[in-house]
């Protein structure tokens, strides 16, 4: 996802998105370790998406405090 799209989401939606991405990342890591993951670049994309969501969430929380 792009940061612009993430900034439009609410805090609850960002938390849900973060949880979803973390679960997908874990599942992909398991598939990679068992040799079933064909698109290994997916791991990199997911890690970066998790970081993007965390950054936008931190920015939102910093503004409201």
Cα distance spanning the termini? 26 Å
Residue stretches low in confidence (pLDDT < 50, at least 5 long) are none
CATH topology: Helix Hairpins
**What is the element string, with H for helices and E for strands?**
HHH
Task: Name the helicity range.
Answer: over 70%
Count up the domains. 1
How many runs of DSSP E, i.e. beta strands? Answer: 0
Major sheet size, sense and barrel closure: none
**What's the architecture, going by CATH?**
Orthogonal Bundle
What structural class should be given to the helix and strand makeup? mainly alpha
Radius of gyration: 13 Å
Roughly what is the average pLDDT, rounded to an integer? 93
Q: What fraction strand?
A: under 5%
**Judging from the principal axes of the Cα atoms, what is the shape?**
elongated
What is the strand and helix layout of this fold?
Elements: H1 3-7, H2 11-33, H3 41-64
Helix pairs in contact: 2-3
Summarize the structure.
The chain has 65 residues and is mainly α. It is built from three helices and no strands.
């Amino acid at each position: 996802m792009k940061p612009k799209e993430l900034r439009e989401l609410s805090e609850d939606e960002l938390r849900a998105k973060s949880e979803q991405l973390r679960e997908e990342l874990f599942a992909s890591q398991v598939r990679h370790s068992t040799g079933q993951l064909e698109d290994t670049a997916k791991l990199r994309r997911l890690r970066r998406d998790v970081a993007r969501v965390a950054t936008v969430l931190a920015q939102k929380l910093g503004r409201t405090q």
